[in-house]
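Before going further, learn to read the protein records used in this course. A complete example follows; check for yourself that the lines match position by position.
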Amino acid sequence: MFQIIFNPISAAEMSALPKDLQLDLLSEFQVLPQDLTQLPGEQFGMICREGRTLYRYRCLDYRIYFEAHAQGLIVHRVLHKNTISDFLFRSELPMSEDEQVADARAFWKLIDQATNAYSHRT
């Protein structure tokens, strides 16, 4: 069975949002396994570093960062677009958004915090 799993950090990020916004985000986040091989549209992105692949899904004013898992998807972070945009604006790197994020240690630290929180729970 394909399922979407929110780790404790991403679940907390979602629960901090107003209920109607949560429902809007969840209704738009319609990701299927075959989407990950083709990454249709501009709302998807792929971030790779040291053999690890994360996906980015643009949804309203938010970015949902997730990873493929044997049973579905693990959502690591749900961040407002200005969080990443502010970082990208300050970094002023002449690369695509996903390439910039892939090279940013601060971004991977955010993801690792979420991954560690999830792994300690299971």
